[in-house]
TrEMBL record:
Top-level taxon in the UniProt lineage: Bacteria
NAD among keywords: yes
GO molecular function: metal ion binding; NADH pyrophosphatase activity
Keywords: Hydrolase, Magnesium, Metal-binding, NAD
Cofactor needs: Zn(2+); Mg(2+)
UniProt-listed PANTHER family: NAD-CAPPED RNA HYDROLASE NUDT12, NUDIX HYDROLASE, NUDC SUBFAMILY
InterPro entries xref list: NAD-cap_RNA_hydrolase_NudC (IPR050241), NADH_PPase-like_N (IPR015375), NudC-like_C (IPR049734), Nudix_hydrolase (IPR020476), NUDIX_hydrolase-like_dom_sf (IPR015797), NUDIX_hydrolase_CS (IPR020084), NUDIX_hydrolase_dom (IPR000086), Znr_NADH_PPase (IPR015376)
Start and end residues of each Nudix hydrolase domain: 125-255
Annotated protein name in UniProt: NAD(+) diphosphatase
UniProt keyword Translocase present: no
EC nos: 3.6.1.22
Gene3D superfamilies: 3.90.79.20, Nucleoside Triphosphate Pyrophosphohydrolase
């Protein structure tokens, strides 16, 4: 065993930090006896691993404000590394039994597979696609953007609408369906903009832009606390941190923030 290999220090699924505010590392000698280890890749020639915790966590990221605050302090490289590590070890912790027969599973292929010890079925980590979309409407008096506030969100916290891609759907169909279901707005002309992995627990956020056929909102109160239209000036003020803006924008790490900046730059 190569004791020069590095082990990402996690407390359950929470990252531990060093004195410089970066992700903390130890060596494989510090891994618990019998721990399942996932190979994360090579860094400066050293193999990097993370240990699978006893329990996973399928709760949404908003349920853990401590984690959200901590993530805001990580560098882009550390955030990407932690996000990938969190997703994979969380998946292992929640898939110790076979979905086909209920038998025990064991880790394989460096942590990128589990195999049933009873029926031999192979299981692989999954990523769930989620559309997140900016919906724009312009009746000739100026463009405005549809944003929503999720249930339980703080007042004035608004973001792009989002929803899972259902089996058999294209990304374009998922965008149109989710927008119609949540707001009553008919969306068309869907275009892809960018994507972002989101480890809560393991999603791929597919950022899109769509054009609205109407602007009369019919809110689905089981999905959203509120939805409304915002002008370019209002979104710009919020992105600039103006306390008088009618909304607070998503954290800078979230793809929704990047989408809002893209929309402002597009109209400049």
């Amino acid at each position: 065993m190569n004791w020069k290999a590095r082990l990402l220090k996690l407390n359950g699924l929470m990252p531990e930090m060093d004195d410089a505010g970066a992700l903390a590392w130890s060596t494989l000698a510090d891994a618990a006896e019998g721990a399942e280890l996932v190979f994360l890749g090579l860094d400066d020639g050293k193999a990097c691993f993370a240990a699978v915790p006893e329990r996973g966590d399928a709760s949404p990221r908003m349920a853990n404000p401590q984690l959200w605050s901590l993530m805001a302090t990580l560098s882009a490289d550390d955030l990407a590394l932690y996000g990938g590590a969190r997703s994979i070890v969380d998946w292992h912790a929640r898939h110790r039994f076979c979905a086909a027969c209920g038998g025990d599973t064991k880790i394989g292929k460096g942590g990128w597979q589990r195999a049933c010890t009873v029926c031999g079925t192979e299981h692989f980590p999954r990523t769930d696609p989620v559309t997140i979309m900016l919906v724009e409407y312009d009746d000739g008096s100026g463009a405005k953007l549809l944003l929503g506030r999720g249930l339980g969100w703080p007042e004035r916290a608004y973001s792009a609408l989002a929803g899972f891609v259902e089996p058999g759907e294209s990304i374009e169909e998922a965008v149109a369906r989710e927008v119609l279901e949540e707001s009553g707005i008919v969306a068309k002309e869907v275009h892809y903009i960018a994507s972002q992995p989101w480890p809560f627990p393991s999603q791929l956020m597919v950022g899109c832009h769509a054009v609205a056929e109407n602007d009369e909102i019919t809110l689905d109160t089981t999905e959203l606390a509120d939805a409304r239209w915002f002008t370019r000036a209002e979104v710009t003020a919020a992105l600039n941190g103006d306390e008088n803006a009618p909304m607070n924008t998503p954290p800078r790490q979230a793809i929704a923030s990047h989408l809002l900046k893209w929309w402002i730059e597009k109209g400049a």
